[in-house]
């Protein structure tokens, strides 16, 4: 009985972290209207400092529960460095009552080249 309960708890924890969020659109950077939304950067401070996104609100995943009140109460677009950050960030922000219209994962090429091309990839 304890093994089944432990297995259920572990399964739930893994699904929350790795399973894609239902109903979330993965959009390209050019498809969003930046004027009407808030771009939310949930990458680590080291990554967001090296490759900043102009006009984005930078709050890493580890600090979302503590600093979510600093996020403007508007529609959000999430930028993450990997799918785990994206899934966790969307779930935390939805739980806090934010509406998320889409997301992007910052591509590896953008990190390496650091150029101004549109290299935000789909989720």
TrEMBL record:
InterPro entries in the record: Rhodanese-like_dom_sf (IPR036873)
Protein name: Sulfurtransferase
Organism: Pseudoneobacillus rhizosphaerae
Lineage: Bacteria, Bacillati, Bacillota, Bacilli, Bacillales
């Amino acid at each position: 009985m304890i093994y089944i309960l432990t297995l259920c708890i572990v399964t739930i924890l893994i699904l929350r972290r790795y399973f894609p969020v239902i109903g979330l659109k993965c959009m390209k950077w050019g498809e969003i209207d930046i004027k009407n939304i808030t771009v939310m950067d949930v990458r680590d401070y080291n990554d967001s400092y090296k490759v900043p996104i102009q006009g984005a609100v930078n709050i890493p995943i580890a600090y979302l529960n503590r600093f979510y009140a600093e996020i403007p109460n508007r529609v959000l677009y999430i930028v993450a460095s990997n799918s785990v950050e994206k899934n966790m960030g969307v779930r935390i922000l939805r739980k806090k009552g934010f509406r998320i219209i889409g997301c992007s994962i910052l591509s590896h090429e953008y990190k390496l080249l650091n150029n101004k091309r549109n290299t935000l990839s789909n989720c």
